[in-house]
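Schema walk-through. Below, the input block comes first and the output block second. Nothing else is stored per chain. Lengths vary across the set, and this one has 193 residues.
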Amino acid sequence: MLGRVSPIEILGFLTGAVNVWLLARQNIWNWPAGLANNALYIAVFATAGLYGDAGLQLAYITLGVYGWWNWAHTGREAELRVVRTPRAVWAWLVLTTVAAAFGLQFFLRRFTDSTVPAWDGVTTALSVAAIYGQCRKYLESWWIWIAADLIYIPLYIYKDLWITAGLYFVFLLLCVIGLREWSKAHRAQQYQC
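--- output ---
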């Protein structure tokens, strides 16, 4: 079972746990920890044939740089505030996430040897939506992460990535903590206005 664990996967586990722990606490250093995690997981996922997840790491790197910049340079106030996702954003986010999931599934079926193209496409699309939401500090992005993690955990077990499945279980727990912490911050901000 655990015979295929690599040092890169272990380092990915550690940087990923630090990343989400810092994110839940709204600490800007979550972004560089996340970038290190993404670089490591490109290799882990490509080796496991999870091409959508490997490619997703490139999107994470791009969005990680954007998120880091956005959190550091709000231009409006001293700190980017936790907000509810606007309805208009929800509308296009749902449409683009569904379209991306189907598009990725088609691509993975047609052009790769992926054994799980549908699940790889769905989790990839959900993850991009969630990370975009966290770049903007949308409270509901935590719910998207929770949904993705509930799919990721059995997917990684199926692909024999036990350390990564464990990491995503830790992510799931940290997402619940993050949702609680960001909800508290949002309520506190409402009282300050």
